[in-house]
From TrEMBL:
It holds the Pfam family Coa3_cc. Keywords: Membrane, Mitochondrion, Mitochondrion inner membrane, Transmembrane, Transmembrane helix. Component of 250-400 kDa complexes called cytochrome oxidase assembly intermediates or COA complexes. It is found in: Mitochondrion membrane. PANTHER family: CYTOCHROME C OXIDASE ASSEMBLY FACTOR 3 HOMOLOG, MITOCHONDRIAL, CYTOCHROME C OXIDASE ASSEMBLY FACTOR 3, MITOCHONDRIAL. This is Cytochrome c oxidase assembly factor 3. It comes from the Eukaryota. It comes from Petrolisthes cinctipes. The keyword Mitochondrion applies. Belongs to the COA3 family.
Amino acid sequence: MAVTVVAVGRCRMAGESKQMPKLDLQRDSQQLSRAQMDYMKIIENQNLERVRKLATQRRSNILVGTLLGLGVAGIYSYSIYAVKQEKFLDELD
């Protein structure tokens, strides 16, 4: 039984990445069409809106996590205070 291996795509070299090359808008603006420039502005605005939304979500997540941690610490401290370990062990004897 023969095994056939088919390579899909190509191997990346050490310095290659999946990112597209950076553009210098001052230098490369003549090569870009008006539609491409408009599309870049739309994508940039969408990205800024996404970043703002993620920042707001992160702040609210930090607030909720802090409040939950404080609640757990408060319940733990109250339970230690209310039970008072020494009196509890004295009652068992």
